Amino acid sequence: MGGDHGASVVIPALAAVATRRPEIKFIIYGREDAVRPELAKFPALSGSSEFVHCEVAVQMDDKPSQALRHGRGTSSMWNAIEAVKNGQADACISAGNTGALMAMAKFCLRTMASVDRPAIAAIWPNLRSESVVLDVGATIGGDAQQLVDFAILGTGMARALFGIERPSVGLLNVGVEEVKGQEEVKEAGRMLREAELSSLDYRGFVEGDDIGKGTVDVVVTEGFAGNIALKTAEGTARQIAGYLKAAMGRTLMARIGYIFARGAFNQLREKMDVSRSNGGVFLGLNGIVVKSHGGADSAGFAAAVELGYDMVRNKLLDRVQADIDLFHARNRQGQTTQANVVKTDEEG
Amino acid sequence: MGGDHGASVVIPALAAVATRRPEIKFIIYGREDAVRPELAKFPALSGSSEFVHCEVAVQMDDKPSQALRHGRGTSSMWNAIEAVKNGQADACISAGNTGALMAMAKFCLRTMASVDRPAIAAIWPNLRSESVVLDVGATIGGDAQQLVDFAILGTGMARALFGIERPSVGLLNVGVEEVKGQEEVKEAGRMLREAELSSLDYRGFVEGDDIGKGTVDVVVTEGFAGNIALKTAEGTARQIAGYLKAAMGRTLMARIGYIFARGAFNQLREKMDVSRSNGGVFLGLNGIVVKSHGGADSAGFAAAVELGYDMVRNKLLDRVQADIDLFHARNRQGQTTQANVVKTDEEG
To answer: Which pathway does the database say it acts in (chains A, B) (predicted)?
Structure first.
């Protein structure tokens, strides 16, 4: 029901995925009057899907608290998340209200053991290939331990999606002043360096322009700076697209050039289209929830569905949980050892 | 002496500015062996400039504390800043080490009365025209009062440079979660709304993609998020330039198209070139200091010089000081009134 286009985008997307991935089964939650007519256009989809009518649909401008109050138990969004909790579904995909989806997912699925706060991870195209950037807006601020958890969660996602055995990780920081960055970022860097995890290759601090370069596979930051970075990059891409369009229409020569190079421009447009590199992934919860861009077309929503599928297939949650357990166990051990040292010193 | 190219970029830039703006006089600080040969190539510049030999040059990789220790009193950077303090110069322009320049400028010029911390303001091209974005990396974090000071400082700069009598101002924030943004940002928003300053038109929160759109004339944020936004935008611009170059070489048709549209592409390249929209301006100090991009060419450095000139000509410092005094006076008055109310309540 969510996103700018609702069922008219979601159902054709599922039909497309169904032909590519016949092993996927869909449970579709929504209002009958909106979904049934769309489903009728894709009779082949009926074999691989089940439709569940839900009276309530969370609106795109509902506040998260409102959505929880009115939509808990009744809305299509809640029911889709609950299906993951109950084990009926392996992943929940929605193009709906991000804040409401996060609030419901946190409430219903809860965070993983020893993870305090969830993150939203974005797949960010770069000059090399793609990277995972998190958190892009689930939480504001975050202490060092949360940044380390984000690093482990993001690494698990990069491993599941890109097939890199030991993804490289950077902490987003600034490089202007001598005493660089926030205390939490420096402390998280120290923790990651000392942990020497076999599952991730910590590369130190990175700056904003390293995201587009693809310096590391996973870029870790708290949600305020991460959301601003993501939105700023989207804004810059649209701005340059605007410049390009204006430049190509300005002179006769440019217009002729454009006609010849139209194929190349279309490719470029796809590459720059933020709705295509689709899917914010909610990490740190006991279940996989993918948020598709609200303005995504069918191809974009299909990409979000396949993103969820890849993470399920690659057992993202199990591997991430194992890594987080390992880190926390070592850290406890480290603290115990340190405490012993202090004790010995005092005794001496 | 600073920047990637030193005197070989700075001196031709001054020569170019001198022909456009014969009313400007330059005092050039640097090492004789580096500057004299360049000066010899532009004999016309000798009439409008004075050269002062300085034994020490701050290196691009010096730490700010190092630069202060070894360069205070002796370096070309320090002497240029001190000329502003002594009234010999109206503005200092440098392409050198940003951290060192800020440390020396703070130490030598001090912050304006009732301004706690300086900011670096960037001129950011957008789809509408240009905006001022600050702080892009002078300080990490910042309380509500500092954000309000930045708003007033940025407004003064926008007025001086763009000639807008009452610039519009937005506070950079995120829009995903219900409880949006940091406490300081919300508090700063309340203060700006209640102040109802005649010098600025406060428009509320803006998001990262509003910078490229040009939603407001002045975008205010603390230095961590601001620096990440700036670097991310630079990275995205370079990334898209990379895509564009690849796309235009991929097929014969694209290559033919490129030949026709070459003029348009060159214009676009200029527009996307970060070294052209040049000049980080240090605001909040008792003097005008402009930091040119280290990688700037002569045209870029000349733009930074003219930026400094425009701010001097438009009496930036006087107007900004008047606005800040007005705000703080009102705020004190507000607090007094409130204190009286409380007192009356207690008496009642």
So the answer is: Lipid metabolism; phospholipid metabolism
Question: In the CATH hierarchy, which fold is given to the domain comprising A113-274?
Answer: Isopropylmalate Dehydrogenase (3.40.718)
CB contact (8 A) between residue A235 and residue B210: yes
Average pLDDT across chain B, whole number: 87
pLDDT at B197: 85
What are A43-58's pLDDT values in tens digits?
989 889 999 999 999 9
CB contact under 8 A, B263 and A253: yes
Same CATH topology for A1-110+285-314 and A113-274? Answer: yes
Tokens of A68: 């929880």
DSSP assignment of A53-107, as one string?
Answer: E-SB---TT--HHHHHHHHTTTBHHHHHHHHHHTTS-SEEEE-S-HHHHHHHHHH
pLDDT given at position A204: 92
| Band of residue A271 on the pLDDT scale cut at 50, 70, 90 | low
- Domain at B112-284+315-348, CATH class: alpha beta
Distance in Å, alpha carbon of B94 to nearest chain A alpha carbon:
15
Residue B106 pLDDT > 50, yes or no?
yes
- Sequence-ordered list of residues with C-beta below 8 angstroms from that of B347, at least 6 positions apart, any chain: none
| Chain A residues touching residue B258 (CB < 8 angstroms) | 257, 261
- The domain segmentation of chain A, as residue ranges, is 1-110+285-314, 113-274
> So what's the ipTM on this one?
0.83
